[in-house]
Amino acid sequence: MKTRQIFETKKLSTAKPGELIIITATGNWYAIVLAADAHSTLLAYLQPVTPNERDGYAFYQVIKEDPRCLSYGTDWLLEPTIDDGLFRSPNNVCFTGGLYLDGNSYVAEFSLRDKDFSNRRFFNLTDGKLVEGVNNSALIFGGWKISIPSADGEKPTQLLEVKPSQMR
């Protein structure tokens, strides 16, 4: 049987914006590298939805250390969750982990770890770069899933699902 490695190990400082990683010290939390320089890395952490959690949790954080990580590279697949969350009003959702379709690009919105929704970052998942925000006409999805191409080239392997936090 021929196998293909779907990730590589590396130092976080060598990861590029748009890479999907797991920092091995944090367990099963995935992250997308949003930006990096010589001194720190800005990560959007993505906690998978589990049976014990109503929503997946997404937030951003600056990491100054240089831990080892598993990198899935930038060749991962994004699938918006099309459900009753499609076309939600921006006034009804807290967008940590929210996904917009802005023109031909998917843009995710992340808040700080403490759910400070006034301090937000927008990351263009299509182009792999930070952006200032989204247009007022952008579509808002209720959540999104990340998969990776399978080792055998068949059905993609779903890694996680993110759902924006709902305002109570």
Protein model, in words:
With 168 residues, the chain is an all-beta fold. It folds into 2 domains: 8-71; 77-162, no CATH class. Helix content is 0%, strand content 42%. The chain has no helices and 14 strands. It has strands at 8-11, 20-23, 30-36, 41-47, 57-63, 68-71, 77-80, 98-102, 105-111, 120-124, 129-131, 139-141, 144-148, 157-162. The chain has a 6-stranded antiparallel beta sheet with strand order 1-6-2-3-4-5, with no helix packed on it. Strands 11-10-9-8-12 form a 5-stranded antiparallel beta sheet, with no helix packed on it. A 3-stranded antiparallel beta sheet has the order 7-13-14, with no helix packed on it.
Topology, please?
Elements: E1 8-11, E2 20-23, E3 30-36, E4 41-47, E5 57-63, E6 68-71, E7 77-80, E8 98-102, E9 105-111, E10 120-124, E11 129-131, E12 139-141, E13 144-148, E14 157-162
Antiparallel strand pairs: 1-6, 2-3, 2-6, 3-4, 4-5, 7-13, 8-9, 8-12, 9-10, 10-11, 13-14
CA(first)-CA(last) distance: 51 Å
Instruction: Tell me the series of helices and strands, N- to C-terminal.
Output: EEEEEEEEEEEEEE
Shape descriptor: globular
Count every beta strand, where a strand is a DSSP E run of 2 or more residues: 14
Q: Tell me about the biggest sheet? A: 6 strands, antiparallel
The number of helices is: 0
**Strands of the largest sheet, in order across it?**
1-6-2-3-4-5
Report the mean per-residue pLDDT as an integer.
Answer: 76
Weakly predicted, low-confidence segments: none
Strand content: 35-45%
Which value, in Å, is the CA radius of gyration?
A: 16 Å
How much helix is in the residues? under 10%
Structural class determined from secondary elements: mainly beta
For the record, the count of structural domains works out to: 2
